[in-house]
């Protein structure tokens, strides 16, 4: 049995966690681009954005040819209305560095 097909989807309850407030903690969610998974479901993308999540697209590759699954994740992000500036691995290195520095500073202030 192929474990990727047998593994259950990730279950989260965004409605009980979001009540319209952004988190003070830096949250990152992954869009799994493997065609058998494709979670975080595109219908939850807006809730993740409202909650302040930064997303990344993950091919869930277990072999080099499976890296080609990335396009499925990009399509799901587009379908869910995720702008490129909220996708960590769509940023340039200077943008990622700036984002992480800002998050580190905001955590230090909150501590």
N-end to C-end Cα span: 47 Å
| N-to-C series of helices and strands | HHEHEHH
Strand order of the largest sheet: 1-2
Compute the number of strand runs: 2
* Largest pleated sheet: 2 strands, parallel
Total count of helical runs of at least 4 residues: 5
Query: pLDDT below 50 for ≥5 consecutive residues: which ranges?
Result: none
Helix and strand content put the structural class at mainly alpha
Helix content: 25-40%
Radius of gyration: 15 Å
Which percent range describes the beta-strand content? Answer: 5-15%
Shape estimate: globular
Total individual domains: 1
Mean pLDDT: 82
Report on this model:
The protein is built from five helices and two strands. The chain is mostly helical and 111 residues long. It has one domain. It has a two-stranded parallel sheet with strand order 1-2. It is globular. It starts with a helix and ends with a helix. The mean pLDDT is 82. Residues 1-24 are annotated as: Disordered.
